[in-house]
Write a structure and sequence with these properties.
Length: about 400
Amino acid sequence: MPVITCIEDLRRIHARRAPRMFYDYAESGSWTEQTFQENTTDFSKIRLRQRVAVDMTDRSTRSTMIGEDVAMPVALAPVGLTGMQHADGEILAARAAEGFGVPFTLSTMSICSIEDVAAHTTKPFWFQLYVMKDEDFVRRIIERAKAANCSALVVTLDLQILGQRHKDLKNGLSAPPKLTLPTLVNLATKWRWGLGMLGTKRRFFGNIVGHAKGVGDASSLSSWTAEQFDPQLDWGKIEKLRDMWGGKLILKGILDAEDARMALRVGADAIVVSNHGGRQLDGAMSAIRMLPSIIEAVGDKVEVHFDSGIRSGQDVLKALAQGARGTYIGRAFVYGLGAMGQAGVTRALEVIHRELDVTMALCGERDIHNLGRHNLILPQGYDDPTTVI
């Protein structure tokens, strides 16, 4: 068993063990990948204020997200194709999250279905919805999420039009993989992954195949997904989805203060400041740079969560200290899953929790709710969304 000290250790193992097309799917952004890269590098521009001679016993990272108790304010973000990073990936990640005491969010574009995950877990999880043109499919998948006792609906707002990711196009990304010669050569070196996939029946988009009209196999699936993301999604449709769901609603993909205020008006229980991990609008500001202006715009009128660029517990602390009530990790847990399955996801959570706890202590705080801007040193202009630094 390798010694895992940081998320980067898991990333390196993931790169060795997962097929190239699925590793690239996780580790890529759109176009030039500027926003993808700045999501992480902009965290490094924030410095921490060290404090000493403070009693550091009885520290606590426990909190709540949308009223649910969490061991730390970190949820597993919705990530498509998770079940192709490792066999039964969504089930394994959900189990790891449940065991650790943090929320798990299942993607519409998951390999394991809503029903699969519900059957293999004991606590409610969150379900992420991509709004499709097929309104009957949307209605039925919301009903399926209700039947599975999902405790929140996370509606992704920033994928009406699919951003171009060069690596995915060059790799011919699909589920299951297209068996081109380069893919076959790469798969031949990933025997551990291959054995896992041979041992599972879950190799397609489980929430779609057999549920969407006219989609009964892989050949019909690709054409359906290419045409289905709804470019007409607007705030009126979001209000209808809210009423259809009737439970806790989280709106993901907010990167502008005005959109945050609109999300507040339609009755969101929480918003997620996110640029889809740099996978949509390349050239947009990093999520962490936009967080302060969005916090200022909505104050405590809606719970503000944060996503995009977190690779450590220190990143979590920096987001919380700027006012976020919760954070999400996507790539960080996928690295763990691709590296070591469920144990790898648990290890990713352990790494982030330890970094968060130790950093909080060295900043002179014992309770995660006491974190604030007083714990940070920001460069001039950092919290001005109109300034590039």
